[in-house]
Amino acid sequence: MTDIDEAMLIAWVDGELDEVTRRRVDRAIAEDPALAERLERHVRLRDRLSGHYAPVAAEPVPAGMQALLTESAKVVPLARPASRWRHWGTGGAIAASLLLGLGIGHWSGGPEGPVAVRNGAMVAQGTLATALDTQLASAQDGSPVRIGLSFQRKGGGWCRSFEGQAVSGVACREGEKWQVQQLVAGAGQDTDYRQASSGDARIMATVDALIDGPPLNAAQEAAAKDAGWR
Amino acid sequence: MSFESDLLAILPRLRRFAASLSRDRADADDLCQAALEKALRARDQWQPGTRLDSWMYRIMRNLWIDEGRSRQRAARTFAPEEAGEHVGHAGDRDVEAHVMLSDVDRAMHALPDEQREAIALVLVEGLSYKEAADVLGVPMGTLTSRLVRGRGALIELLGEAA
Q1: How far apart are CA B15 and CA B56, in angstroms?
Q2: Contact of A84 with A91, CB cutoff 8 Å
Q3: Inter-chain contact B4–A73, Cβ cutoff 8 Å?
Q4: Nearest by CB to A56, which of B16, B126, B129?
Q5: What is the C-alpha separation between A91 and B25, in angstroms, rounded?
Q6: Who among A14, A42, A57 is closest to B15 (CB)?
Q7: Domain CATH number, residue B1
Q8: What does the pLDDT look like over B91-142, one tens digit per residue?
Q9: Is the Cβ of A76 closer than 8 Å to some Cβ of chain B?
Q10: For the CA atoms of chain A, what is the radius of gyration?
Q11: Mean pLDDT by 10 residues, chain A (230 residues)
Q12: In terms of domain of life, where is this protein from (chain A) (predicted)?
């Protein structure tokens, strides 16, 4: 028997032993095949675990997370709304569809609203349509609607996320119209409303689901606008 | 370098840590996203000159623990989602529910939280014992005993293949 315990063995594997103790373990291993086998098991376990999770760190970062950080870097930091991530799968979707159900009747009733229903689909109109057509994320001071991200969707076509006082969401170009893919409640009259969008997990989840490649940079966005979003 | 670009630089490692804590990759990215949001809100609490990665590991780990507690509360209040699918297999419910996951994911998920987070920080993230103990807010001796017990359990769960 040796006086090498399990904690000492794993500390050897983790590179946590001082020189003297490490040599002591080395000598014990050389003299004791059973101990060497235990050490070998720990080495294999560490290799297997680190190898198993290593591919995650090699993957490209999801666009939503990247966008959260790049958007945040552009905006003066203010308090963000509380995270709703626990409810992504259910609560967020239910809240969004509830909003749609409540909202359509209201908006479709008036010509002034940001969204109309045409042929069973929601399309942007008024100031929202104008913002989606013409506004660049880099130049939108004083606009009632702000553009968040512009990006190419999977399968082709352009999409843009937007944020306003009443509603925020994501719209994609369909022919000459912007079809609204998602609407969530805006932050109302709160002067901090600009914070609501980019950090809104529901919108980022939609962007993540739709996006193909990275979001457009300012030059690409301007070029897409000049081409009429075709 | 801004706070955001520093975060972006360590984001791949944060996602890996989230993956080793969470029961699947979707939960892991939810957790990671929530940790980023929290970090952006709490950026004033980070002290420049200290390690941003350790600070983020701590934020993520605390969110994950809180989430685990609220899941446990929900489990006591409501029947678990999967219950209907596993009638007659109550004892194996966790194992059955994770049949799509790899052996390593399953074995990690079978560990008590306190062992899993210690294993994740040291074996997956490569933190030193001191760094890991700081993130978890426990003495070194506590950390090493969790590492010993967690590794013993993993070797048993993964069999000779480990």
Answers
A1: 11
A2: yes
A3: yes
A4: B16
A5: 20
A6: A57
A7: 1.10.1740.10
A8: 444 444 444 568 899 999 999 999 999 999 999 999 999 999 999 999 999 9
A9: no
A10: 27
A11: 84 94 94 94 94 92 89 57 43 44 42 72 84 85 82 89 82 89 68 45 80 85 90
A12: Bacteria
Instruction: Determine contact, residues B31/B22, Cβ cutoff 8 Å.
Output: yes
Of the partner residues A48, A88, A204, the one whose CB lies closest to the CB of residue B104: A48
Q: Quote the pLDDT of residue B90.
A: 43
Measured distance CA(B102)–CA(B96) in Å, rounded: 12
Q: How many CB pairs under 8 A join A and B?
A: 120
Q: Which of B37, B101, B142 to mutate: most A Cβ within 10 Å?
A: B37
Contacts of A44 (CB under 8 A, 6+ apart): B162
Is A153 in contact with A172 (CB distance < 8 Å)?
yes
- CB neighbours (10 Å) of residue A130? 14
Beta carbons of A151 and A213 less than 8 angstroms apart = yes
The string of DSSP letters for chain A reads: --S--HHHHHHHHTT-S-HHHHHHHHHHHHH-HHHHHHHHHHHHHHHHHHHHHHHHHHSPPPHHHHHHHHHHHHS---PPPPP-GGGIIIIIHHHHHHHHHHHHHHHHH-TTSSEEEETTEEEE-HHHHHHHHH-BTTB-TT-SEEEEEEEEBTTS-EEEEEEESSEEEEEEEETTEEEEEEEEE--TT-TTTHHHHHT-HHHHHHHHHHB-SSPP-HHHHHHHHHTTT-
Count of domains forming chain B: 1
Residue A171 to residue A167: CA distance in whole angstroms: 12
Residue B140 counted as domain residue: no
Q: Do the Cβ atoms of A54 and B43 come within 8 Å?
A: no
List the domain range (segments joined by +) for residue B30: 1-78
**DSSP secondary structure string, B84-111?**
GGGTT-GGGHHHHHTTTS-HHHHHHHHS
Question: Do residues B151 and A8 make contact, with C-beta atoms less than 8 angstroms apart?
Answer: no
